[in-house]
Amino acid sequence: MALHFLLESSSDATVGDLVSLTGAEAKHAAVVRRLRVGESVTVGDGAGVWLTGAAEEVSPSRVDVRISARAEEPAPNPRMILVQALAKGDRDELAVQAACELGVDEIVPWQASRSVSRWEGPKAVKGRARWATIVREAAKQAHRAWVPEVSPPASTADLAARASSQRVLLLDPSATTRLSELEPDGRDIVLVVGPEGGISDDELAKLSDAGAERVLLGDTVLRTSTAGPAAIAVLSVALGRW
Questions:
Q1: Which residues contact 32 (CB under 8 A, 6 or more apart)?
Q2: pTM of the complete model beyond 0.90
Q3: Distance CA 82, CA 94 (A)
């Protein structure tokens, strides 16, 4: 499989054009991946454009690729959205990375009432940027045509508002309906994963009152770092992606 790289912005390049990787991406290609002149590569813009070509010039500061083919992949529909509660250590980051590799289309940080980690002020900006970097690298590793968006941190009220137009599913070990039993209805699916202590009763009540559905993932209780990715795998089969 050809090495895959990402451009910094959308691309209208077509067959015969030259596209350039610069900055950290060029250094990664030249120094880390040891790309050589003449080697075939694929290049994406993270918004559906998929370019195939060969490296014409390679240096740590600039990599030029001559395009031999262009394809455009439509945005997934319906979309899978992961609402990941902030968690201590790197557990939320592990969830974000795996979810991206498995095909999630948007990631929403959630400051749940039981979240030990707190994103406030500048820390929220830094945290979102950190997640966006993780997502970009995971999408590149997985050769995804679309790089998921990392949305601003959401409150419980924000999640309740989504239930008016999207199908919000609360992963709840006490639920009686299994996630594997649900039939897609065409709406975007929002998976809500709680922190280490789970989603509080108050949050469950508020979200359920707004139209969210409680679902059971399985007979065991998963960590917050694995629950979301596991649910995405189940939904990928239901949606016909796998």
A1: none
A2: yes
A3: 13
